[in-house]
User: Fold these one by one.
Assistant:
Number 1:
Amino acid sequence: MQDDINNIRKMFEKDLETYSKSGDFDELYLKYFSKTHGLVTNLLKKIPSLSAEEKRTFGTSINTIQNELKQAITEAKAAFKTATINDPAIDLSIPEVPLNSGELHPITKTIIEMNKFFRYHGYSIAEGPEIETVEYNFRKLNLPEGHPATDLQDTLFVKEPDILLRTHTSSIESRILSEYEPPLRVIVPGKVYRNETANASNLGFFHQYQGFVVDKGVTIQHLKGILEEFHKFLFGENVVLRFRYKYYPEVSPGMGVDIRCQFCEGAGCTVCRQRGWVEVLGSGMIHYNTLKMCGIDPEEYTGFAFGMGLDRLAMSKFGISDIRKLYSGEMIYV
Amino acid sequence: MKIPVEWLKEYIDLDKTPAEIAKSFTTIGLMLDKPIIKYSKGNFSTEVLDLEHRMDRADWLSILGCSRDLAAFEKTTFKMPEIYSGDIKKPSKEQIVDIKVECPDLVNRFNTRTFKKIKVGRSPDWLKNRLESYGISSINNIVDITNYVMVETGQPMHAQDLSKFQKREILIRKAIKGEKITTLLGETIELTEEYFVLTQNGMPIVLGGIVGGKDTAVDEHTAEIVLDAGNYNQVNIRKSSRRAKIQNETVLRYDKFLHPKLTEIAIERATKLILELAGGEVYENVDWYPKETPERIMNLRFARIKTLSGMDIPLKEVESILSALGYVTAGSSKESMSVTVPYFRTDVEVEDDIVADVLRIHDYNNIPTVHLDIAPPKDITPEIYLVEEQLRDICKNLGFHEHITDPLVEPDPKNDKQIKLENAISQEKSALRTEMYTSLAKVAESYTKNKIKTSYLFELGKTYEKQGSGNDFADYNESRVLQVLIGGDELTAKEKAKTTKRVLASIMRDFGITPYAIDVTGDMNIVMHENVVLGEIKYDSFFLYTEALKNAKGIPNRIQSEYKQTKTEDISVVMPKTTPVGPVFWKIKEIDEKIGSITCIPEELDTIIGEKNKNVLFKINYSGDNFAETREKIIVLINSLGMSVRELSSIANDL
Ligand SMILES: [Zn+2]
C-alpha cells in the first residue's frame, strides 16, 4: 500500500511538470481524482476493505496525499495563469479592430431619435397602408376631385382613380381620426410616393414624419409650443425659428416653419438657396371639414397636425449628397 | 407668382426695400422662393420677387391680389387701377357678335365687347417693360393689353380679329372627336369630346380656357376685334390642359377657382387701356351669364378666433384686418359678425379660413408659444411597431447592417401578382416589389466592390401583391417583411448556410418561438410554427413575415437561477440521405421536458451505411439524473420513423 502511495506521488510529480507546460489541469485532475478511474480515488476505495490497523496507518497517508495533490494542482493552475497573463506577447498598446456590430439606416436613426422626443411627450406611434384609397389620401383631408392643390403632390396610381400610393403620411392621420375616439396624440413615420423623375433630390419615394393631436382646448399656441421644443431638440437650443402662413388643404389655419440657416445665419448662401432660412416643416390646425369627415365634432374638439420630410434632414445629418445614395448600395457601412 | 416691384408699387404706397417686401410677403403666405431677380433693360430696371404660390388663392396669381394682402399687412393704402368709365356705344343688330353656348356645364360666363377702328402697333415702353420684367414677351399693343390685364387682375382674356370671322358668331361647344386645332404657337392638337372649343362658322378657333388658335389671331392689319373674358369649369380645364400637355399663363389661372365677377373688372380695365393705346371705338356685346353666382355671407364667431388661437384679438383689429382684405361687414353682435366674403376669395370655405386671415395678417410670430399641459391620452402604438424595433435591434446586435431599398421596381410581365403602376414616369420604376432579396443582393454587390469580402445585411420593409382582378382595394396586399442576407464570395455556401440558420435561430430564441420547423417542399424551405408560415430560408438568406412573427411570439426565458445537473449523450442515427434532419430534431426535442439543448452534427457518409444512407449525430443534453426513460422514448421514436440508432455512448458528467 505504501508503495502504491509512493509511486503515485512520484508519478504525480512527473505529471505535474508535463501538465504545467500544456496547462491541461482538468485532465491531470481526472487522472488522479476521477470518480470512476482516478488513481487516488482507487486508493480511497480500498480503505473500507483494510484492517483496522491498516486503516490507521494508511488512512491518514491517503488523505494526506489527496490533500497535497489537490493543493499542488490548484497552485500549479494559479502559477500557470499568472505566467500566461504576463506573457510578453500580450502587447496592449497595439490597437485592434473593433468587434462586428451592425449599423442602422440614417432614416431609421433619425426616426428613432424623433420617436424618443415624441414618446416622451405622450405621443403614440401609428403605421398603415402604403397602397391607399383616394378617400383617405385626399377626400377626408379636404381635397375634392380636381382641386388645384392636388398638384402639390403628383400621385402615382395603382388603379385610377380610386387606388393610389399614398402621397403623404396624412393618410394615416385620416385613418386614425376615423377609427379612434379623441383625445389622440400620434406620430406617423413612413414611406410616401410621388410621381417624380429620379434625380439628386427626388426619387419617387421618400420618408415623411407626421404628427397630430386632437383634444379639447388645443390651440395654435400649443402647436407653436411643441414645434419650438422639437426644433430645439433637433437643432440645438440656439435655433432661430420663423413662423409664417402657409396653405395646406388639410389644415386651416396653416403654418410653415423655417429655421434660420445655420451656415450663413440668415445672410443667404447656397445651402439655403439665398433665402437665409430653411423650410423644415408644414403644419396647422386640422381642418374643420377633415375632423367632421372623420366623425369628430369640430365644435367640441380641435387639433393640430405637422409633417416633415426626413430624407433631407438625414442626408444633412450624415453628410450624404444625393438622395439616391440613401437607398442604394452607393451608401455602405464600413 | 412673379412680382416686378416697380409694377407692385402702382397699387400700394410702401417705402420698403424689395428684401423687406419679400419678407412681409413670406410672412403672410407668399414665400420668396428664389433669390430676388434684378431685371433691367435700357433705362428701365426693377427687382422681381418670385413668390411661391400654393394653389388655393386664385387672386394670388394677380399683382392686385398680392398687393391687397401686402397692404393689409403693412397697414397702408391699396389702390385699384383706373378702369373705363366713359360711354360704351350700342351696336347695331348686324354688328353684334352672337354668343351661343352648347355646353353650359362647362361655361359659367362669357363676357364680350367689340372694338372698331383700332390701330394695332407696338406697345409703349412702360407696358412692354412691365410685361417683360414679369416674363411675357411683347407682341403688339392689343395682345399685350390682354396679357397685362391678366397679370394685373388674374383674369385671362382673349382678343380676336373679327375680319377673319365668316359669321358674326362664337359658338362654344364640346369638341368633336378627331377635330383639329392649330394653336398660336403653330402646334396642331387632335381633339376629343372631353375638350371644349370656341368655334367660328363650325371651325374651332380657340381651345377653351387653354390656348387660342392661329386663324383669328390679331395682327398688324387688324382694325376690329372681339374681346372676351370667360369663366369656365375649372376641373375640365385642369384635366384638358394636362391631357394636351399645355401649361401656360392662361391655364395656370383657369385651373384655379376664378370668380365670374372678375371678368367685369378685367373687361373694364382692358377697355380703358385699348382706347388709350390703340384708339378706336368700343361697343357693347353679349355678356353670356345665365346663372349669376351669389354673394357669400359667412358668420365669424369671436369665440372661434379664441378657440383656434387662444388669443383675444381686439374686435377693432379684427374688423380692420378683414376690411383691408376686402370683407364687408353685413352685421354684428356681441358674439359674432357676419361678413360678405370678397368675390375674389374663392378659397374661403369655412369660418376657420376667416380666422386664418385674421391670424396671418396679425402675424403668426405674434402668437404666444404655450406648452400643452393636458395629460397624454392612452397609448395606441400597435404591437407590430415594437416587434419590428426588436427585430431591428437583434439584427444590429448580430452584426447585420440595415439598408432601405427602393420599393419601386421594373415590372415583370410574367408576374400576374405584381402590382403595376398606371402612370409612373419611368418604366424601370413602374411596379411594386414582390420580394426584397433582389434589391438587397444588389447592395451586397457594392460591398464586394468596396473590398468588403462578406456583407451581413438586412432590410425591414414591405412587399406588395395583387390578388384577383385588382378592382377592389381589398385585392391589394402589403406584407411587412424582414429580409436577411449574407453577401460576398469569401464564405462557402455551407458556411453561409450555417450563419443564416444561426441568425434565424437567434431571432426565434429571442422571440420565444419554439419549436419552429423548416418544411422542405421541393426546393423551398419554409419556416413554420404551429402550421403557420413564418417565412422562407435559403442558404444565404431568409425572410420572415413580421406580422406572423408577432402572432407567434412567446415569452423567452433564458434566466437560470438554480444549479441544474445535466448530462450529455450522443445518439447516432442512420437515415436515408435525402431525409431532412430538422423534423427529426424537433420531434426529439418535443419528447419530454428532460431534454434540454440538442446539437445536431451530420456526419460523413461511410461505406458501412451504404450509398443511400447518412449518419447523423444528435448530442442530447438531458437535465437531471435519471434519463433512461427519455432515452428509451427517443429510440422508440427513431425506430418508428423507419430509422435506426447506430451506437450509444454515454459520457458521465464527471466535473
Ligand atoms: Zn444660408
Note: Chain A has two domains: 2-86, 106-327.
Number 2:
Amino acid sequence: MLVTVNINGEAKRLNIAPGELLLDALRSAGYFGVKRGCETGECGACTVLVNEKPVNSCLMFAAQAEDADILTIEGVAPDGKLDPIQTAFLDHGAVQCGYCTPGMILSAKALLAGRPDPTEGEVREALAGNFCRCTGYLKPVEAVLAAAQVYRQAGQSARRKSGRSLGTSRKKR
Amino acid sequence: MFDHIECFYRPSTLREALVLLHKTGKRGAIVAGATDIVTRADRTPRFFIDVTHLGLDYVRKKGRGCTIGAATTMMGLEKSPIINRLAGGILAKAAATCGSIQNRNMATVGGNLANASPAADTAPVLLALDAQLVAVNSRRKRRIPLDEFYTGPHRTVLNGELIEEILIPPLPGGRSGWSFQKLGRTETDISLVNAAAGLQADSRGRIKWVHIALGAVGPMPLRAREAENLLQGNALSEDSITRAGGAVMNQVSPISDGRASAEYRREMSRILVQRALRECAVQAGFPIMN
Ligand SMILES: Cc1cc2nc3c(=O)[nH]c(=O)nc-3n(C[C@H](O)[C@H](O)[C@H](O)COP(=O)(O)OP(=O)(O)OC[C@H]3O[C@@H](n4cnc5c(N)ncnc54)[C@H](O)[C@@H]3O)c2cc1C
Ligand code: FES
Ligand code: FES
C-alpha cells in the first residue's frame, strides 16, 4: 500500500506492506539515522518526531503515519548547518559510539520546542526514554542545557527552527 | 514481524470502524497506540483497524465526574486540566508512569484497559473511581463496569466490541483524599504492584466512602472489598490501617515471575495499600487515631 508522509519537510510516498513498522519503512527509504535497537519500545534508538512529538518508530505502524509530519535526525541539519543541540553534543563530548545520539537529539529538540528554559530534571525526564549503552547520561544532559541557553540567547525557540526546517509543512494537526 | 497482515484500515468515523470490525470478525484486531500490539506480536489477526482517527481523543467534564475518549493518550491524560483536578489527579499520576515520553505519546487509555494486563497502571485508578466502559459494536452499545470487565490475564468480556469511552461517575467531594501508588524497578517501568485508593470522611471523622484497588497481584486488577468493608463507617486508626493491609494480603493471589516473587508482591500489596490510606488521610485532613 502507498502512504503519503511528510519527512523532513519533503512530501514522500512510501510503498509499504500493511503490517510494516515505521522504523522499517524509514530505514528502507534511506533514513538510516533512525536506529534499530531493542524493537520493543525500551531503548529509544528509533525515536523520530511525529507531528513534533517523540515516538518510538519500532512501535508504530507505517500506515499510521499517513499525512503526518516526521522529523528524523537527517532533517535536523538539512543544509549541513548543525542545530545548536548537535553542536552542544559535540562540544560536551556527549557522543561516544553515537548509536543513541539521533534519538537523544530528537527527544531534546521536542523538549526545547515546548520548554525553552528547562530544569535539569525536565531534561533528564525528556531523555529518560533514550538509553545509552556507552552510559554517557551526564554529558547529554549538560549538552541539552547548554543548547537551551544558545537558543535563548539567539532569541529563537527550537520550535521556530524546526518549523523552518520542515519547510512547506506548517499545517498543525 | 507482521507480514501476515493483509490490510491496515484507518477509518475516520466510528460507524465505519464498527462495520470493519463486524466484517473482519475474529481476523480483525483493533489498533490504537500499538505499544502493546507490536510487543505482544500475536500472529492471528489478518486485518488491523486503527481507532485513533475516530474523534475518540477527548476528556469532558460531567458534573463531578467526566468522560474520557478511549483513544486519549497517556500524555493527553497527564496534560488534561480536568484529569489533573479529578480525584487528586491520581489518573494523571498513573498515566505519567506508563513508560517513556515516547511510549506515553502513543499509548492510549482504551488500549491500557483492553489489553487487560494485570499490571496496567490506569486500571487500579479507574477501578477505585468506579469507572464504566462504553462498549459498542455494529448492533448495540452497552455499559460495562470496569469491575466486571476482566475475565483473566489478557482476557475481557469484549465480544467483537470497541471501547468508545470511559465514564467516571460523580465522585465524593468534601473531605476526601486520593492516592496512586506504584512499585516498579524505575518510576516508569511496568508495575510489580500498583494500588489506588480514595476515601471520604463524614463530619464526625468516620469513613463514609472508601475504595481500594490493586494491580499485578492476581490474574486481573481487583477491588479490595474486604479491606474496604473493614474501614467503612469507622475512624481511621493505626489499627484499622494494619487490619486493612492484612485483609488485602489475604485477598491477593500474586504469581512469581522474572520481575518479583509472589511473597514479595503479597507483602508489597499490604505496604502500598497502607501508604495509600495514609496519603488519603493527609489529603483529607483526616487524623489517624492511635
Ligand atoms: C516500553 C514499554 C513500557 C510500558 N510501560 C507501561 C507502564 O509502565 N504501565 C502500563 O500500564 N503500561 C505500560 N506499557 C504498556 C502499554 O504502553 C499500555 O498498556 C498502553 O496503554 C496500551 O495502549 P495502546 O493504545 O498502545 O494499545 P494497543 O497496543 O494499540 O492495543 C492494545 C490492546 O487493546 C485493544 N484495543 C485498543 N484500543 C481499543 C479500543 N478502543 N477498544 C477495544 N479494544 C482496544 C487492541 O486490540 C489490543 O488488544 C508499556 C509498554 C512498553 C512498550
Ligand atoms: S528500537 Fe525502538 S525503542 Fe528500541
Ligand atoms: S553513545 Fe553509544 S549508545 Fe550512547
Note: Chain B touches chain A through 27 residues (CB under 8 Å).
Number 3:
Amino acid sequence: MIQFLLHGFRSVFHGSRAYWLWVSALLILVLVGLNAYARQLAHGLFTTGMGDEVSWGLYIANFVFLVGMAAAAVMVVIPAYIFKDREMHKVVIFSELFAVAAMIMCMAFITVDLGRPDRLWHLVPVIGHFNWPGSMLTWDVIVLNGYLFLNLYVCIYFLYTAFHGHVPRQGLYLPVIFVSIAWAFSIHTVTAFLFQGLGGRPFWNSGLIAPRFLASAFAAGPAFMILVFTILKRLQAIAFESTVIDKVRVIVTVSLLINIFLAGSELFADLYANSAEAIHISLLFGLHGESLLAPWIWAALGMNVLAALILLSPVRRQPLALMASCSMIIIGVWIEKGLGFVVPAFIPSTLGDFVQYVPSANEVLICIGIWAFGLLLYTLFLKGAIPIVNRTEIHPD
Amino acid sequence: MEKDTKPSGALSRREFITGMTITLAAAGAGVAALSPLSGAEETPSLDAFLQQHYKRLTVAEKKAIFARLEAEIRSTYGVKAAIADPPPMDGVEFAYALNIGRCIGCRKCVYACMQENNQSRDPQIQYIRVLKMKKEGRGIDLQSAVHDYPQNEAADPDYYYMPVQCQQCKNPPCVKVCPVHATWQEPDGIVVIDYNWCIGCRYCEAACPYHARRFNFTRPHIAPEEINPHMAYLSNRPRYMGVMEKCTFCLQRTRVGRYPACAEVCPTGARKFGNLNDPQSEIRKIIENERVYVLKEDLGTVPKFYYVLAK
Ligand code: SF4
C-alpha cells in the first residue's frame, strides 16, 4: 500500500511545464476562494447576495449541478460493465474518478452554504441529532457519502490491483459496481426530492423534477467526459478507439432530447392552463417586467437546442463541433439547474414579493475556488491513475 | 502532459526540491488566505461548541448553560439579563385570530415584537409583515400586495391590511425538513428553534410557505439600552450569526399567562390570542362564530393563525 501511495505521489510531482502551469493556476484560484471563504466565515452569509427572500443561491445551484455530474459517471459504467464493452473499460475509471471529485465538490458547496459550519457534527448520526427519515437532507447526506465511498472503493481497488499487476477479482468489485449504478440514480433522485417535496414552493412542487434532473445530468455528465477523453487523447496521455466517443455521444444526444422534451412538457402545462401562477412563463418573459433571470433562461434553452441540432446533424463527427456542443450542454445545464431551477422558486417569495438575486463577488469567488479545488483533485487523480492504467494496457497479465 | 508510461523512475533530487518548495509555498499562502478569520464577528467558545441539543440536556446542564449565556450577554451588552425556561402549560394549545376588518396597518405590532423579542436592529429583522391589498379588484391576493408602504399610507379605508407572521402550523413543514431537529413543535403547539443547535442550512426557510422564518445573515446588532432583559432560552434571548429565528408566540410571556406583545399593543383590538383547547375561550368563540380563513389552506399545513373578516 505504501508503495502504491508513493507511486501516486511521485506521478503527481512529475509533469511537463503545461501540467505545472495548469496545477499552479488552479492552486491560485483555490487560495483566492479560500480567502473569500475566510471572509464569509468572519462576517457571515451577509457577504453573499442571498437574503430572507432568496435564501439559496449559487452554492446550492452548483451543488445540484454537481450531484448530477457525479451521477452521470454511471452512463459510462453501464456500457462498460453491463454491456461488456471492452473499449469502454479503458476509460471507465476516469469517469469514476470524476465522480469522486464531483462528490467532494458537492460536499464543499453544502458546507460553504451553512451558516454554522462549526456545528456540522450535529449532522453526524448518533453523536448529532439526525432527523432521519423525516428530512430529505439527511437522506442526501447518506446517499452522497455512500456514493463517494462506493466510487472511492472501486477506484482504489482497481488501481491498487493494477499497480501490483494482479487481475481484479470479480467478487470484490462487480457487486459494488452494480450497487453504485443503482446508487447513482438515487443520489440525483433524492436531491430532486429535496426540492419537489416542498408544497410551499409551487415552482419546485412538481413530479417532473426528478426525471428532469436525471435527463439533464445524463446529458451534461457524459458531455463532460467526452471533453476529458478527447483532451487526454490529444495530449497522448491515453489511447482508445473512437467508438468510445461515439457511444458516449449517443447517450448525450438521447438524454438531451429527453431533457428538452420534459422541459417543453412542463412549459406546455403552464402555457395552456394560463394559470395565475404561470411560473415558467413568468421566467421566460419576466413577470411584471422585472426578471433578471429571463435572459439566462433563454440562453440555456438556446444552448441546449443548438447542441441538440449539432448532435443530430452530420457535423457531429467533427471533433470541434462535438466539443462545442458538449460545452454548450454543460453550460446550458448548469444555467438550467442554477438560475433556472434553484433561484426562480424564491421569486416571487411565498408572500408574493419580487426580490431579485444577484450573487456577490465574494460568493462567486468561493464558487470558483471550489471548482478549482475539484478540478485540481481530478487532475491529480488522473495524473496518478493514468500511468497505472497505461502500464496494464501495455503488459496485460 | 507527456506520455506517462514510465513514471516509476525514481524522483530526481531537483524534482523533489521543486515539489517540496511548491507544497510549502502553498501551505504558507493558505495561511495567508485565511487571515480574514482574525477579524471574525463571533467565535464560539469550546462550551458552546460542545453544547448538546436542548432536549438532551439535564436540568443541571441547562442551569449551567443559562448561566453561561447570561454571562455572555453581560459581557457583550453590559446588560443583566435573566434567561428563563418556562415549560408549556398542561392542556394548552395556543392559537391566534386576526381581524383584518379592523387592522389599520399601523405596524405597531411589528415594532413591539422587535422590542420584546430582541431582534437585530441592524440589519433589521421583523417577524411580522403587514401586506396591504386593495379591497376592490383582486381582494386577498398576495402577488398584488405591498408590504413596504410608507407609514402615512396606513389606515386607508380602500385597502385591507393583512399582517402575516408565523402561522404555528399543526403540520409545520419547517420542522419536518430540518436535518438536525434544531426546530420542533412544543406540546402547546409553538414551533421553536434551539439557536445553539441550528446549523444554518436554511432548508426550513425554503420549506415555509408563509415567509415566517428569518435568518441571521450577519451578527445581530442591538443597542444595549434596547435589550429586553426578560428572556427565555427557546425564544427571545439574543441570537447568533448564522442561525435561524422566528416568532414563538412570545412564549416567555404567554406561558406565564400574559398576551403576546403584538396582541397587547394593537390599538384596534384586531388581534386575539388564546387557548384552543378551552371551549370558553375568546379564540374558540371567534373560530366558531365568525367568518374565518387560514392562509394557503390547500397546502395542508393547518395553521393555528386564523384571519377573521368582521367589523
Ligand atoms: S436552518 Fe437551522 S432550523 Fe432551519 S432547517 Fe437548517 S438547521 Fe434546521
Note: Chain B touches chain A through 79 residues (CB under 8 Å).
Number 4:
Amino acid sequence: MVSDEEYRSICNLLYKEARFADNAQYDDWESLLTDDMEYWVPINREDPNPATQLSLLYDNRSRVSTRIRMLKTGVRHAQVPPSPMTRLISNIEVESLNESEYKVCSAFMLGELQIQSTKDLHWWIGRTEHIFRRVDETLRIARKRVDLINSQEAVPSLAFLI
Amino acid sequence: MSVQNAIDYSTIVKDGIINSRVYKDEKIFEDEIRKIFHNGWSFVAHDSEIPNPGDYVRRSIGREPYLVIRNRDGEVNVISNKCTHRGTLLCQEERGNVRGAITCWYHGWVFGLNGDLKSVPYGAGSKDLDHKCLPKATVGVYKGFVFATLNPNPVDFMDYLGEGASLIDRAVESSPVGKIRLNAGWAKFLYKTNWKLQCENNIDGYHVNYVHASLARSIESRYNEAVLAGEDELKTTAVDWGNGHSELFLAAGFSSDLEWLGYSDKKPMKPFAKAYCDQLREAYGDNRASRIIHDGPPHALIFPNLFLAETNIVYYEVDQVGVTVQRHTPMLLEGVSDEMNTRIIRLCEAALGPSSFFLPDDGVITERQDLAFDGGPMEIDLRRGMGREDRNGMGVMESHVTDEVTNRAFWSRYKEVMVA
Ligand code: FES
Ligand SMILES: [Fe+2]
C-alpha cells in the first residue's frame, strides 16, 4: 500500500516525465534519471530476455546519455525538428517494492506527427513499467520499460524519447 | 503487355545516371517483382531459424506469402502459404511448428511439409485434386542462408551467388566453428521509401559525415575520426564484387583488433573478448585468425535484398512501390560465450532499427528523397569516382570508400535483369 501523498508524488513524476519528453526538453528529462537508469523497449512479447533477445532499444545509463547528446546536437535528422507529440497516461498502478522503490505500471497513447519527413500522424500505444527510486528525498526514474502493442510489427522511426 | 507500354530500362538506367522514375513508377515496381523477385533469386531465411522438422517462418517472395519450413528429412522447403482451395493464409503466426502437417482452418484441407495435398474433408464431393498441392519455390542454400525463386528453371544458384559466397564465408567465419545462428528475433523498421533507396544507402560510403553527424559529435569512435579525416586519409574502400554484390571494406580503416566489436586503444578488451580471440586462433591458426580478429565480418549487399551488416543480418521486404520493411537481427555465433553473443545483440540495437543511433537518420534522409521525387523525374547522379575506380589484384573494381562504385554495381546488375 502507498499513501495518498506517495501516490500523488508518483503521478507528478509520471506526468512531468511525459511533458519533458513530449516537449523535447532533453536536459530536463535526463535530470529525472538515477545514475544507473536503464531504458528498455523490448520486441519479443513472450520472452523479452535482453541477454538472448533483440530489443528495439536497451540503453544503460551511458547509452541514454549518448542518446540525449545526439538529440541535442541539432543534427539528429530523425528528430529535426522534434516530433510534435502528446501522450496520455492512464491506468496507473503502484506497488511499493522496498523502502525507497516503487514499481509503477501505466498505459499510454502517444500521438506523434512525423514532421521530419512524411508528416504522417502516428499512434504509439502500449504499457510502461517504471521503477521509481527515492534518492536524497527526490523521486527519480531508475528504470523505464515500454512494451508497445506492435513491437513485433514494422514500426517507423522511434528516435524520440518514448 | 503492348510494345508502347514497355519500359526501356536501357535508357532510364545509364552509366551512373538513374532516372528517378525507377523509385516511383508502379509499373516498374510490378516489373521488378516479376523479374527480380519472382524470376531471380532473393534471400528468404537462415536455416538456423527452423531447427526442427515442422518448424516454419513466414516470409515473402516479392509480395507472395510463403513458408520456409523444414520437412521430416531435415530439408528446407519454401512453399506457398496460400491454401490452394480458396486462398486463405495457412499459417498466420510469424513462426511456429505445424506438427506433422498443415491444416487449413477454412475447410480443413491438409497439406504435408513438402506441400503435397494429403486429404480433404468429405472427399467424395471433391474431384481432380491431384494438382492442388502447394506451389513450391526453387531453393538454394549456402552455409545456412536460404534463397528462393519462383522460377522453376532459374540461373544456377551458385552462378547467381558468385563472389557473394565469399562474402558469406567471411561472415560465418566470425564463428570459431563456422556457424551462425539467427534466433534473437527480428526487428522490423518501416520506411516510406522505395526499396532501392535502402539498398543504395546501405552500401553508400559517402554519407557518413552528414547523415550521421549527430553520432560523430556525441561519441568517441571511429565514426568521429572518419568525419575529421581528409579525403586522402580515408583508407577504407568500396568494392564491386560482380553480379550486383558490393562491399564497403571498412576493415582497411581499422587501427586495432576487434574494432568492429567496439574495442580500441581507449577501450580495452573484456575477458570474454580476449577468450573469443583465443578461440579463433585455436580454430583457424594464427594467420587466418589475425585477419578475422582485425577485419570482422563484411559490410556488403548481396543483390537484391540481403545486407550483411557486419555483426548483423539485414534483409528487405518489398511492400509497395513507396513502402519497404527492413528486417534485422544480430548475427549470433556458434561456439562462443553467451557474453559474446549478448555483446553482439547490444551492438545491433545501437546500430540498426527505429531507435538506434544510425538508421533513423538514414531513414529520414531517404524518405525526403522519396518525397522530393514526387515533383517529377530527375537524373540521379551516381558517377562519383568513375574516373579513379580500378581493378585491384583480385580483378575486382575497387575505389575510395566515398565513391559510388558500389551503387553502380547494384544498378548495372539491375539493368541486366530488367532489360532481359
Ligand atoms: S480455403 Fe483452405 S480448405 Fe478451403
Ligand atoms: Fe547510414
Note: DSSP finds twelve helices and 24 strands in chain B.
